[in-house]
Amino acid sequence: LNASMLPYLLFSFLLLSVQAQNCSVREIIRHTKHLLRDDSVGCPCRETAGSSCSCLPIAEPGYELACFVEGTEHMLKNNVSSNEVTTRLNLTFQIQLDRKLCESLARGNQCQYKTKGNVKEFLNTILRTYQAINK
């Protein structure tokens, strides 16, 4: 086993464990609740460039994963909250989208939304979505 194989093996293992967890529901709920504890996520969403508050897409049914990927990427670019947790969520959503896991959330690869919300609303959407799967 050489060192160049390690990242590949770890990534394969990650994919398998994600699939085994069927949508990683518990992990996503845990990470999302962690991010919701941050007070700064509640500021009002404004589209203006100078605003420190992010406006994130609130997905249409069937496009959740694409919007969750887009929203978490925006959070990372703008250092909205814990980068480590957000990175983990982003990677998980990306894998689910690419692998067509959680099919009900991944009808389309493009984020479709009618409204935008602040980070708290966005995170609550993630939470509600995965809690519904968990029932």
TrEMBL record:
Cleaved signal peptide residues: 1-20
Q: Which UniProt keywords apply?
A: Signal
Give the InterPro entries listed for this entry: IL-9
GO cellular component terms, A-Z = extracellular space
Signal recorded as keyword: yes
Q: Transmembrane ranges?
A: none
One function term, GO molecular function aspect: interleukin-9 receptor binding
Would the keyword Ribonucleoprotein turn up in this protein's UniProt record? no
The record ties this protein, via PANTHER family, to:
INTERLEUKIN 9, INTERLEUKIN-9
User: What is this protein identified as?
Assistant: Interleukin-9
Q: What is the lineage of its organism?
A: Eukaryota, Metazoa, Chordata, Craniata, Vertebrata
